[in-house]
Amino acid sequence: MLIDNCGYVKETPSNGTGLFASQFIPKGKIIARVSNDERFCKKKDINNFSVDLQKDLMVYAYSDKDGYIYYPKDNNKYMNHSCNPNVLDFGDGVEVAIKNIEINEEITCDYRQFYDSDWCANFKCNCNSLNCCGIMKYDLSVTDDVLKFWTNIFMSISPV
Predict the structure, then answer these.
(1) Model-level pTM?
(2) Exposed, middle or buried by CB within 10 Å (0-12, 13-18, 19+), for 8?
(3) Which of 8, 60, 144, 149 could disulfide-link 77, Cβ–Cβ 3.0 to 4.6 Å?
(4) Hey, is 2 helix, strand or coil?
């Protein structure tokens, strides 16, 4: 769930709908936390739902290592991917701004943190960042370079 109503939804030029900052968000601020009511079902139970709901889940939900599907209940579900994000999830469903986010700037995260071969199909990355992965696919998984990138960011915002 977004904290402090810090984001709003609008159309983006390349990604359809996105989440944008409604206020200045300083580096290090927790912007969202996963709530227990967002844990929707086990992946194995997905076929018990209507085709329309399954399609919606495939776009807006994500799965965890224990096989649960999480379906955000607010605008957080509109956060798009970037290979150079301004928000990362540091575990336990806590999403933190890893750089200052200006008002009206798109809020993005790195989907490679959540990528799951049972859940996601390959898709073209539209982030256009210098370190863009090109195609999001499970066999890319998280490389040592990406882990180092995330670790360096985490260390830069963590209290010493």
Answers:
(1) 0.78
(2) middle
(3) 60
(4) strand
